[in-house]
Amino acid sequence: MTCNPASVVxxxxxxxxxxxxxxxxxxxxxxxxxxxxxxxxxxQDDYQCGPAALATVLVHGGVSVTPDQLVSQIxxxxxxxxxxxxxxxxxRSHARVPYRLDGSWRSLLAELHDGRPVLLLQNLGFDxxxxxxxxxxxxxxxxxxxxxxxxxxxxxxxxxxxxxxASWERAGSWAMVAVPASEPPASAEALGWLQAVxxxxxxxxxxxxxxxxxxxxxxxxxDPLVWTALGNVSYLQQDFAAAERAYGQALSLxxxxxxxxxxxxxxxxxxxxxxxxxxxxxxDGEPPADFSATWNRTLEGLAAMDESQCQAVQxxxxxxxxxxxxxxxxxxxxxSATHGDQKETTDGCGGAENExxxxxxxxxxGKGFDHLFTxxxxxxxxQEE
Amino acid sequence: MPRKNISVLAVLxxxxxxxxxxxxxxxxxxEQMVTQHTRAASxxxxxxxxxxxxVAAQLEAWGVGPEQVAGRVATMSDIELAQLADTMxxxxxxxxxxxxxxxxxxxxxxxxxGVLNLFR
Lengths: 385, 120
Description:
The structure holds two protein chains of two kinds. Chain A is α+β, with helices and mostly antiparallel strands. Chain A has helices at residues 5-17, 49-60, 67-74, 84-93, 105-113, 161-169, 190-202, 206-219, 224-236, 240-253, 258-270, 292-303, 327-331, 363-384; strands at residues 27-28, 33-36, 75-76, 81-83, 97-100, 118-123, 132-141, 146-151, 154-160, 175-179. Chain A has two domains: 5-182 and 347-384, Cathepsin B, Chain A, CATH 3.90.70; 221-331, Serine Threonine Protein Phosphatase 5, Tetratricopeptide repeat (Alpha Horseshoe). In chain A, strands 1, 2, 5, 6, 7, 8, 9 and 10 form an eight-stranded antiparallel β-sheet that branches. Chain A has a two-stranded antiparallel sheet with strand order 3-4. In chain A, a hairpin with a 4-residue loop joins β7 and β8. Helix content of chain B is 62%, strand content 2%.
């Protein structure tokens, strides 16, 4: 990429124009440098780049924590380092969702573009003699063709694009961002978001999981898995009317969806109303092999119940008995359904930002950014090879 | 030391057996739903608890204080613990201090020798 002043300014304008909530994600667009300048820096001690890097992204996300506090949560003396699994779990302990990026450099850029520092694992050695290191990606310098990192004892470590990507790929292209449960990140996809949020549900932090799934159905309103997940937390919160609506939504999008159907029947059983299950016991073939035991248990449970204790669900949710088969409800227009399923991240915005109220609209500017930077990267990589 | 280990593990087992209520609720939990077809998701209850104990024991063997182990294990879900038990010995542990001094020199030498290596 020829970095004439015009294109440099353009990058700056594109970046700053694409940033939500001014002040929170202020990107420095001066000269050729795009950097999320307000990301803090914590110099690491000894082998403790894990705590330093995690504190960097957490504090930037508004969590009050220090690397020293994280040492007792993620540092493993015998390994002289920190395991990814513990980074993820500890991020959740601080009420943030650890979203694992998909391993493409486009996602790294999409997150930077969105003002989100990216915690990544590098192998600074070789495949056979690895030297593992965590660092935080905070920006790039288009003219120097470098990425900018908070790394080790350097608050502004510059490393060439190709070298960074190579060290990252040698580490399995592992990267994460830490976000509030209400904000799926720019590069997120539905399945990845569910995988990131679900451990909150499994470990009993149901309210946080509910927040994450609620944000999920806004972003991916046509994905039956996300609706099923929302039904699951409603079930666990014993809001059976909401659970039935969410499972019903999943089934209207994907008739016969086994987990949604199974969990809907479980919801009827929890209400003592096995009779409601009849329409859902139709001829939809056999459940997948690894699911048949669960399904059979549900059927046995249904057969063993009687209807006498069936109670109408609370009227507060206005769903009432039979909510699931209410076609009007099911056909309720899905909010902005046209963009929800896009997996496109090439514009650096995930293509879905419009779904999230209060977020930026950046389709056009995002494409410009990506074009410029893609071009620069391609040339770089071609030169290095 | 062995006695301490056993008591820590016993407490862990008890906590984990009790704390896994959502998984027992009847519905297919979301995590189970989105990690289908993996070994970890298909484990039964006992195997999951044992995986947690395995992770705890390994962390302790690696020098994590016994008073911290229980808390750290408790932040992970059963499925995560089962996956970690399978992979933790080979999982990368990021930690090197990236002051590229001696390490860098050594790497350059290795890189050069790698370039000159006729077998490559």
